[in-house]
Amino acid sequence: MKIASLDDGSPDGALVVVSDDLRMQRPCTDRTLRDALDMKRLVPELTEQPFDEGSCGAVLPRATQFLDGSAYVNHVDLVRRARGADMPPSFWTDPLMYQGCSTFIGPQDDITGDPDWGIDFEAEIAVITGDVPQGASADEAAGFIEYVLLINDISLRALIPDELSKGFGFVQSKPPSATSPLAVTPAALPGWDGRKLHGILHVDLNGQPFGRANAGVDMTFDFGTLIAHAAKTRPLPAGTIIGSGTISNRDADEGPGQPVARGGRGYSCIAEQRMVETILTGQAHTPFLRPGDTVKIWMQDDAGRSIFGTINQKVAPWP
Amino acid sequence: MKIASLDDGSPDGALVVVSDDLRMQRPCTDRTLRDALDMKRLVPELTEQPFDEGSCGAVLPRATQFLDGSAYVNHVDLVRRARGADMPPSFWTDPLMYQGCSTFIGPQDDITGDPDWGIDFEAEIAVITGDVPQGASADEAAGFIEYVLLINDISLRALIPDELSKGFGFVQSKPPSATSPLAVTPAALPGWDGRKLHGILHVDLNGQPFGRANAGVDMTFDFGTLIAHAAKTRPLPAGTIIGSGTISNRDADEGPGQPVARGGRGYSCIAEQRMVETILTGQAHTPFLRPGDTVKIWMQDDAGRSIFGTINQKVAPWP
Fold it and tell me: Is the pLDDT of residue B79 over 90?
């Protein structure tokens, strides 16, 4: 089953069930996804209307909690190298995770920020959990995944070094992320193996292919492991969102990966492409986002049909 | 006006307006504080019932966001010294803040954790904001404070060093905080100066006075400044909670402060008392919390009446 929250001006939006072909929608007895998660039910009504993914807000505009992992350790390695920081070997065995902003913006909402902040996107897979008890194992935790979705974890690269040097993680450097128009139950998701999503995450920057990484490859920590990490010292109430971190694939030769234009799988954030440029040419030349730039993020099934709809954002004029 | 959310088994509780003397309560037209914040109104009904603060859950069990500052830089200095970390001078001018867990537990809920995790309390003042626009100044931000409350920011000291060394801030080491039974509007709050709360924050550990610090003293960053820091790169939707960090007073001689038993103002967390013990005797001797230990946190007005009710928590048996 696919669901979306229409942006009707209310804080949580209006929950609808969407047909697999994204053509029709049905409202639900519980008006919002939050209510449906609380009631532990999802009851679509019979009336059908045409679905327009342009009318969607964030699937869950106010998540109960948001914890974002860095499951693709290749990305962590590259981004840390890009800012001159070493990566401890424990990063390959102990999940890296931060507490993110628990509110989300819609898939077509503008990205708003000062271009001097170094605005970047990060294309990720995320899951919405049911009630996860404290201390759940990774195997148990995987059973609490209710929905899978895409997110764009907007990151302000120029603010990160100073903020992380203070030792308390991201605050200003990680404003609210955007979600895909749709979230999909694991049972209805092609490529879902119970812990990971296999398939190409498409990222276009200003209409050009930028990333075509496979989300099922190089994911060092699967979602069961990420959820269990988050739940070690707390329960996770229904409506918690757990992110994968930026999707990132190594090259076949174990190198950092080639741009799409050179036949590679490209990148799911600009920072990674800049790092590879530095390795290849001694200098980064792809700029971070500027007003007017656009980023699109989506996945499609084997028949080319959109699975989650498209995150399609523009950077707003500043100020 | 004082409000509370009764723990009726629902995720957000049942909003009531409580009389200033904490004797009577009235339900509200909007069933939950979240609904009332969304509707930008608070309409108590006429029917009155006796109020029992023991029936309260967290004031806002699911905050929209939670950002916790470290406004009492004396505390940061001592805790960092306690774990052998230096404090950069910029900490006196640039607010330290982390994204905390956006769900809260009730004022009488047990603290649940492995005693080997080094369980500690942190007594803090916090505010619930209305809708704060991105980029609000500190002066503007102070105008968006809707309610003031107390929180116990439970901290797992033994997990903090490894977690912070990973660079992404607190996750496992900061499980959900507890709130006071009541939240109070600024207009009804004795000692509120528009940006800070002046008054003694009482902390008892196992029935003995542990902390009597003045929340209006040594607060390097006031709430206007903390909210503006959080809102630099994002709007803060109504229902955002901003914490002060652990209340901490220096001694009159600018030293780290004496225990209450020696006539000092004591501490609002165990870590600070342990640090001072180390300074005075070369060794910390106050243990972190063990199953069965109790912590009480409250404030009272000049007439000795409780302002926010009492956070009164016990550490649960483990496992």
Answer: no
